[in-house]
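Schema walk-through. Below, the input block comes first and the output block second. Nothing else is stored per chain. Lengths vary across the set, and this one has 185 residues.
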Amino acid sequence: MIKDLNKYDKIQLEEIKYGIEAIYLTISKIVVILIISAVLGLFKEAILFLLIFNILRATAFGLHASKSIWCWISSSISFILIPYICKSFTFPNLVYLILPIICLLCFIAYAPADTIKRPLINKKKRKIYKILSVISAISFIILIILLKNMIIKNMLMFALILETILILPITYKIFKLSYKNYLNY
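--- output ---
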């Protein structure tokens, strides 16, 4: 009876298992980070930064930690420390212009950045992701210039900076991960 219900081969079952593990790790990581953020009085800021960052991440992609422990560490630093900085500091106006423009240039040059586990093989999709990434970066820059709320300005700028770091070839090289994985197909 169970064999009749199981319509998946071994590879498909491994993919399903991998997907379930990824969902579990993501949800548990977010819950822990949000609990710590709440204890530190950064709950709203952490949620907002998570949302803002993932707008960029959705189309620019970028580096993923090679081990779960590194993912936990980098995510905790990113989604707790950055909201703290965004809430606590104000930067000179020139910083809000220069850093985002540098990030935009990097998006134009390097987005989207794929991974070994998720190569962007389809040339048309890569081009669409590049266009969407650049549009998102430009939108963030416009908001940074127009908004008066320093916390949100900071979050937009730091999301751009973080995502830029994650798409740079040098970052892949530092972590000994392959870049432009689609070229292998």
